[in-house]
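Try this one yourself first.
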């Protein structure tokens, strides 16, 4: 798949969620041309069979446009809910006592079933219980194995099966439900590129998913629980990428705490060299309106200035009235921010010290050399994608052209900052490495005659993890004669 295509010179990636408004082959291709670099499939909605056509449509577009496409399957995770009420709903009065118990009889204004024994095991006096996306707040005053006694701190109407959040304790519940395991097997059989894991509270929560995936996809941890913040670095070390799931964080935490946490998660992810996605409500008003609010534009810009690898659209592209316009707007905001002369300085507010390895030392050197000699691109050869991730962590000022013999690697790199990944055959010698890098830079419109490029690779070739070569070359007129890969 080394067909030539103009790369996106925008460095931050755009991840678009697909749904009822955007799942046809025609719409998916429109989203791609509007600026979508990767596509999220939400496993919470619809059945598996309906997702096969969506995945096939993405791969069909991949073949038509000649660019590796990236698919992220987002697992639903455990959904905590209260039971049902005799009259369908009740009104909880502020200051009243309300019980949650194990009795499956329909509830009333005094009590309701809570069908999650794990909460009874973990709950503590003083902990909060948030109902219906945080609209109602209960405070635990007493508990035993059969019931939890609460005081209503914020009352309101509560109806059947509304969601429950428990922000103040770690619930001893696996991150993967039976539905998630089925969806995970399906997604892997469909050869998706990333698996997003919900309800991550501890690094141990990633272990089962990692075992089931067995390297067939990259694993992304959604940071949406306050308990995950307490062990943030450990969690990020155990995954391949991170999502700042601001919707759930904003339910379980006071909203004013979410922006500094977003910056912290982005910073730690960048420092550890893991792609980080900022998600949820970025252009929320565009679900129903053709243009965003100024505050939403500023929110997207902030994530770009912070150096996030990707910014995500949810309902805006999945179910809104303006899916293509939402992607185009996010694309144009990101491009405008990256044209700002101060963008490079702000991105480097986060210090990413290289690890004491040859590959990390060369990656840092490549960034600095590109600036010093005014190179127009960094070109790296990689099998696993590790070299590309190391270079991207340094946030170089020039595009990163990644040449890989593995289509799976090219696809996974769609969430990586500044990367244009090309699936192409491997090289056999140093001379072929240099010649091919020059041709591919020309073919993919990243360089012209007279430009300098930086090449990184590992010798001996075809040895993963052996990056040990940094070579600066100038493209001359001879390379213009032959673009063949």
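Now uncover the answer:
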């Amino acid at each position: 798949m080394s067909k030539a295509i103009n790369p996106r010179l925008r460095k931050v990636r755009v991840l678009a969620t697909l749904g009822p408004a955007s799942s046809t082959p025609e719409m998916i291709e429109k989203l791609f041309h509007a600026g979508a670099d990767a596509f999220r499939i939400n496993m919470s909605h619809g059945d598996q069979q309906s997702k096969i056509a969506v995945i096939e449509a993405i791969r069909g577009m991949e073949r038509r446009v000649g660019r590796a496409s990236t698919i992220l399957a987002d697992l639903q995770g455990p959904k905590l809910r209260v039971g049902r009420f005799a009259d369908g709903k009740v009104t909880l009065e502020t200051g009243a006592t309300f019980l949650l118990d194990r009795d499956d009889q329909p509830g009333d204004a005094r009590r309701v079933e809570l069908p999650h024994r794990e909460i009874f095991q973990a709950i503590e006096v003083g902990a909060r219980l948030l109902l219906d996306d945080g609209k109602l707040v209960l405070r635990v005053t007493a508990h035993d194995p059969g019931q939890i006694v609460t005081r209503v701190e914020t009352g309101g109407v509560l109806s059947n099966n509304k969601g429950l959040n428990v922000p103040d304790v770690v619930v001893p519940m696996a991150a993967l439900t039976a539905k998630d395991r089925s969806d995970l097997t399906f997604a892997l059989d469909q050869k998706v590129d990333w698996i997003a894991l919900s309800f991550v509270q501890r690094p141990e929560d990633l272990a089962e998913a990692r075992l089931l995936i067995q390297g067939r996809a990259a694993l992304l941890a959604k940071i949406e629980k306050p308990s995950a913040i307490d062990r943030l670095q450990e969690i990020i070390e155990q995954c391949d990428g991170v999502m700042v799931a601001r919707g759930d964080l904003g339910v379980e935490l006071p909203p004013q705490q979410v922006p500094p946490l977003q910056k912290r998660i982005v910073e730690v992810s960048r420092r550890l060299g893991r792609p980080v996605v900022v998600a949820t409500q970025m252009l929320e008003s565009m679900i129903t309106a053709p243009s965003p609010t100024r505050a939403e534009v500023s929110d997207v810009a902030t994530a770009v200035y912070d150096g996030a690898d990707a910014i995500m659209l949810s309902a805006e592209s999945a179910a809104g009235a303006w899916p293509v316009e939402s992607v185009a707007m996010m694309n144009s905001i990101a491009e405008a921010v990256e044209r700002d002369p101060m963008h490079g300085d702000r991105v480097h507010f986060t210090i990413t010290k290289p690890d004491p390895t040859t590959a990390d030392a060369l990656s840092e050197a490549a960034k600095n050399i590109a600036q010093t000699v005014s190179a127009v691109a960094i070109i790296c050869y990689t099998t696993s994608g590790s070299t590309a991730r190391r270079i991207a962590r340094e946030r170089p000022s020039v595009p990163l052209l990644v040449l890989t013999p593995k289509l799976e690697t090219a696809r996974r790199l769609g969430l990586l900052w500044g990367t244009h990944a090309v699936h192409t055959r491997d090289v056999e010698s140093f001379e072929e490495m240099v010649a091919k890098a020059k041709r591919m830079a020309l073919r993919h419109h990243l360089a012209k005659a007279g430009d300098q490029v930086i090449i990184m690779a590992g010798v001996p070739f075809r040895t993963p993890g052996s990056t040990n070569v940094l070579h600066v070359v100038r493209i001359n007129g001879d390379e213009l004669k032959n673009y063949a890969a």
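Discussion: The radius of gyration is 24 Å. The chain has 17 helices and 21 strands.
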